[in-house]
């Protein structure tokens, strides 16, 4: 029997069989200005030659699955013959969902997996559980682990002790990659060029030029300088999707510090935007969100746990989710935690090689675990007992 | 006379409309809500003339007849039961009566650090507050831009 692992994120689905490699695929549908009548699903995004003004149709709202029509179109595509060719009667699925998922969403999920697709068996779990499983697999001597998952919709801090989650320690910060991109879009549109329609392009700008500052106010001073001295400033060449397929940063030696470029490309000049945008993860109050930043929330979470466990959590922090790929994220987090945590406790923050797929890899390991068959709910069991059996067996 | 000239900025402030705390809060909420939007623009499909009554556009044209039929009934079933948005779902959960921890109690509390202020025009650290709307600015130049462009925007 095959096992399909699906980390069903709000922006990308991480999917693959437990014997194979992972694929990261957009978990949404698109419409494009150039072919208005067609709706593109998931990785059909690659077929769109001119993705300017790309329109997103997302199955998730604030991180929770609400638009089932879209989700099922994406799943039909992923499970279908073009992609994973799932033999449902002979396949087990591991699928993820957010913390404190709503009961009605969970029940819809059961119904769709068992009644519509008719999977042989299923394991519904939280993304953090798979990450923690991965972590404990690599470090079998550790007892505790704190998963920081900062994704598209929000950021979760979740403590795990011997693969059991400690619900009372879970903290959510309502800042994610979507908010960062939208904020960047907003300030660029106000300060230089109207790009409100260009979520897709500006998301790429964010991934290419944004970084987490190590000394915020010093970087602010540098960003304010004129000409060559301003080492923070970058000129970003926007794609026009004919001769320039993908945006890029002008190399430093080609930058024109005063006056205009003669090449006629569309340029965005970015200085404090580069680090002020990711800064929202560390200080949500900068834009008026009255919540703690990640380092403070980590301390708040750990302090709510039994005292004898606390040192173990500070030593085993693991970062997952796309935002952790911002350069300098790990270093800044570790430095801020160091100054918040008592000096005699060691602090260690791990950034895995692939933080986006870390939990998927955990799911892959779980599928090969000897106890896996006891963790799943089979279709027979579901048909016999309904939703209760899922509620009983799944720790969510 | 001299006194009046000196305090011109304040006199001017007195003449300008000053937004109260509730309006400022409402404005902030709207700004934050805008940051949650999936798209700023309208659906490109909606700008086309509406298709005929029978043609709700299928995502994939080449599916066989029997499967199409099955999917249609499935869709109806889901439309009735699962067509809810986030806010409705959250209300339905009735979390205030459920034991903690839950979705609401897991939200990170407000920070204990003092808030930092940035110029709403250029993004650099700011020292001054706009008397009208409470927005921050860093220099006269930015204040002028702010007044001309955004000061009373997003106010009902």
Automatic annotation (TrEMBL), chain A:
<dbReference type="GO" id="GO:0005856">
    <property type="term" value="C:cytoskeleton"/>
</dbReference>
<dbReference type="GO" id="GO:0005634">
    <property type="term" value="C:nucleus"/>
</dbReference>
<keyword id="KW-0206">Cytoskeleton</keyword>
<dbReference type="InterPro" id="IPR004000">
    <property type="entry name" value="Actin"/>
</dbReference>
<dbReference type="InterPro" id="IPR043129">
    <property type="entry name" value="ATPase_NBD"/>
</dbReference>
<keyword id="KW-0539">Nucleus</keyword>
<dbReference type="Pfam" id="PF00022">
    <property type="entry name" value="Actin"/>
</dbReference>
<keyword id="KW-0963">Cytoplasm</keyword>
<comment type="similarity">
    <text>Belongs to the actin family. ARP6 subfamily.</text>
</comment>
<protein>
    <recommendedName>
        <fullName>Actin-related protein 6</fullName>
    </recommendedName>
</protein>
UniProtKB/TrEMBL annotation, chain B:
<dbReference type="GO" id="GO:0006338">
    <property type="term" value="P:chromatin remodeling"/>
</dbReference>
<keyword id="KW-0479">Metal-binding</keyword>
<feature type="compositionally biased region" description="Basic and acidic residues">
    <location>
        <begin position="1"/>
        <end position="24"/>
    </location>
</feature>
<feature type="region of interest" description="Disordered">
    <location>
        <begin position="89"/>
        <end position="108"/>
    </location>
</feature>
<keyword id="KW-0862">Zinc</keyword>
<dbReference type="Pfam" id="PF04438">
    <property type="entry name" value="zf-HIT"/>
</dbReference>
<dbReference type="GO" id="GO:0005634">
    <property type="term" value="C:nucleus"/>
</dbReference>
<feature type="domain" description="HIT-type">
    <location>
        <begin position="119"/>
        <end position="151"/>
    </location>
</feature>
<protein>
    <recommendedName>
        <fullName>HIT-type domain-containing protein</fullName>
    </recommendedName>
</protein>
<dbReference type="InterPro" id="IPR007529">
    <property type="entry name" value="Znf_HIT"/>
</dbReference>
<dbReference type="InterPro" id="IPR039723">
    <property type="entry name" value="Vps71/ZNHIT1"/>
</dbReference>
<dbReference type="GO" id="GO:0008270">
    <property type="term" value="F:zinc ion binding"/>
</dbReference>
<keyword id="KW-0863">Zinc-finger</keyword>
<feature type="region of interest" description="Disordered">
    <location>
        <begin position="1"/>
        <end position="77"/>
    </location>
</feature>
